[in-house]
Design a protein that fits this description.
By secondary structure, the protein is of the alpha+beta class. The chain folds into four domains: 124 residues, Phosphorylase Kinase, domain 1; 156 residues, Orthogonal Bundle (Transferase(Phosphotransferase), domain 1); 229 residues, no CATH class; 106 residues, Jelly Rolls (Sandwich). Helix content is 34%, strand content 18%.
Length: 665
């Protein structure tokens, strides 16, 4: 089958679409064809000036669906085509660096011989879900303001991420946002850099180029459409226009100046600034928009939750006049304090089975995260506080906001630590009197210790989600690591290694109900989120590929205390896998491609240095090395995978042979 740009199926050889009459390109790749001995074409998803996009299955990854983008700009001259491919390869290198859970991962760039010529393809993850154009068309009414506010808060951190590394999307619209089925988060697809390259080389070859190659009319700002000038505020303009289309239900050219009537004044103001005709009048970056949204009291949609914690009835350190942030103190030596707190609520290495079980095993639903409903001992600041205390609390507030730690979670974890250290204060609220000044000081010291710990041990994104990790994150983590050929057991090994290095007193403690929703459980999950990012970036993940003609490899790494490294290798049933580890103070685990309840691992948390076994399955095996040392260590890992030759069959009996004496008896 071949497909038009609207997705209508047509028989091979058709010159025009039987459904809509569109002229069909003869360059469509036939369904079922395998490219690069790996990717089998399933269907065509669409096409444009840069080439066609296909849905394929990856035969090297258990037929996992993926997207193939062919780069075939509308140029014929060899020089222009060569220049286009050079630019495309450079753009692919930029896209490959993108590592964000709301951006499909770009896997590789490869060339395949199809239809008598070489073609260039970019491979990326396939996202299951509907784009926001489809969602809008399927609804009986446009999106609500609460849904728009939610969408903005979900997408602005993504834009901040790509802009921070110098990438501009260029083509944001409802068609290029997919609501992922697994967690209902918007995923940003179809980056416009490739289209820009196609447009540029078409102009080089004096080939007329469609304006859509530079951005969609109405969505892209004027300077982008007329002069090709793009910047972070170009994407903000397109995002705001997308919000208008989803809220009003009309295309940009059909939206009148009365669009403001569809929004309350706070969101009117934010969107109007994003849509300013002059770039200098717009917000300079995504963070500025987020701050403007946070300054409002806009509601968010319950149907598509964003990572903000459920409010709990606890008092907080109230805002007081700003003061300079206190000089940062080292948290060395404070880990013991936090470990004592964690010991009081008790849990164990058993988080492996609690948090991320293998996808093949049925699991009980994980409760949605809600901070502990503890009463805050910290009173609302009043004029009775000394100037020094007001300045101290202001510094804590400013630092917490700068680190992005959600205030309810920050208060909850500080309260819990305070009560564990001073149980005689349990159940009472500290007053603003002089007598309670020492207790307020101790509360603030604990709060500062936690801020030190968060800054030194968690990424900014992990900090932003503290207090809200739950079911959706579990599913997202599993999906992200499975796409890398990594299973849940491996992620838990990495997370446990770092967590228990920082909280060493927790090994062997009894697990308590509600761990995942407790403040310290949220810290564990934040570490897990960072471990996922480290795997995706390749910092802790290495693919083992034997050199041609060899069946072994030697790999080296340096591991910091509490750090781990994962090695994946595609192996076959019946091969003999041998591992030799040269490093002190390590733990070794080996996981099969498809763990089962009967055999969840081949080796787990072992202190062995050598290991071998005949492999029970074909697929991607995971070898995990964890450091339990107190200092950085050098690791050398030798891996060999030999195919075992079958035993020779016994020779057939020779009936003509002379009988033996035993036979004659």
């Amino acid at each position: 089958m071949t497909y038009c740009s609207q997705g209508h199926p047509n028989t091979l050889g058709s010159r025009f679409c039987a459904s809509c009459g569109e002229k069909l390109s003869p360059q469509t790749i036939e369904t079922g064809l395998v490219l690069g001995d790996r990717y089998q074409i399933q269907s065509e998803l669409g096409h444009g000036g840069f080439g066609r996009t296909y849905l394929a299955c990856d035969r090297n990854r258990f037929n996992e669906p993926c997207v193939l983008k062919e780069f075939a700009p509308q140029v014929q001259a060899a020089e222009a085509l060569q220049k286009a491919e050079e630019l495309f390869a450079r753009e692919a290198g930029v896209l490959y660096q993108l590592q964000h859970p709301q951006i499909p991962r770009f896997r590789e760039l490869f060339r395949a011989h199809v239809g008598g010529r070489d073609r260039l393809f970019l491979v990326q993850d396939y996202v299951t879900g509907k784009n926001y154009r489809q969602l809008l068309n399927a609804r009986s009414q446009p999106f609500s303001e609460a849904e728009i506010a939610t969408l903005l808060r979900q997408l602005l951190p993504v834009l901040h991420y790509i802009h921070s590394i110098g990438v501009i999307h260029r083509d944001i619209s409802p068609d290029n946002l997919i609501q992922r089925e697994t967690d209902f988060l918007p995923v940003l697809i179809d980056f416009g850099g490739v289209k820009q390259i196609a447009a540029s080389v078409s102009q080089m070859a004096h080939t007329p180029s469609s304006a859509t190659l530079l951005g969609k009319v109405g969505y892209a700002p004027p300077e982008q459409m007329h002069a090709g000038i793009v910047s972070p505020d170009s994407d903000l303009y397109a995002l705001a226009m997308t919000a208008l289309v989803l809220r009003i239900g009309k295309e940009p050219q059909d939206i009148s100046a009365t669009w403001r009537d569809a929004f309350t004044p706070p969101l009117q103001t934010v969107l109007a600034k994003m849509l300013a005709l002059q770039p200098i009048d717009r917000y300079p970056n995504a963070i500025a928009v987020l701050q403007a949204l946070d300054a409002t009291s806009l509601p968010t949609s319950a149907s598509t939750p964003i990572p903000t914690p459920t409010p709990v009835p606890i008092a907080t350190v109230a805002a007081v006049p700003p003061a300079p942030v206190a000089e940062k103190k080292s948290s060395v030596g404070k880990i013991a304090l936090l470990a004592v707190f964690a010991a009081a609520i008790g849990f164990t290495w058993g988080t492996r089975n609690l948090w991320l079980p293998p996808a093949s095993e049925p699991t009980e639903p994980t409760p949605t995260a809600t901070p502990l409903p503890v009463e805050s001992p910290s009173p609302t600041p009043t004029s009775n506080f000394s100037a020094a205390e007001r300045a101290r609390k202001a510094a804590l507030r400013d630092r917490r906001e700068a680190l992005g730690v959600p205030q309810p979670f920050y208060t909850a974890i500080t309260n819990t630590t305070f009560f564990e250290r001073y149980p005689n204060q349990q159940g009472r609220t500290l007053s603003d009197s002089k007598e309670d000044e020492i207790w307020r000081d101790r509360w603030d010291q604990i709060a500062g210790d936690w801020l030190d710990w968060f800054e030194e041990n968690l990424s900014s994104q992990a900090r932003r989600n503290l207090g809200s990790y739950g079911d959706d994150d579990l599913a997202r983590f599993r999906q992200q690591i499975n796409a890398l050929g990594v299973g849940s057991g491996t992620l838990n090994d990495l997370t446990d290694a770092k967590f228990f290095h920082l909280f060493p007193d927790q090994r062997g403690k009894t697990e308590q109900d509600g761990f995942l929703t407790s403040p310290i459980g949220q810290v564990w999950q934040a570490i897990a989120a960072d471990q996922v990012q480290a795997l995706q970036s390749g910092d802790t993940l290495e693919k083992v590929e034997f050199a041609p003609g060899t069946t072994s490899d030697r790999l080296t790494a340096t591991l910091a205390p509490g750090e781990g490294r994962v090695y994946t290798a595609t192996l076959q049933t019946g091969q003999l896998l041998g591992i030799k580890l040269q490093a002190p103070n390590t733990r070794l685990s080996v996981y099969p491609p498809r763990p089962t309840a009967e055999q969840p691992f081949l080796l787990s948390d072992s202190e062995e240095k050598t290991w071998s076994a005949t492999l029970p399955q074909s697929g991607i095996y995971e070898i995990v090395v964890i450091s339990t040392a107190s200092q950085p260590i050098d690791v050398e890992l030798s891996i060999a995978a030999e195919s075992i030759a079958p035993e020779p069959a016994p020779p057939p009996a020779d009936d003509s042979a002379e009988p033996s004496e035993d036979d004659s008896n």
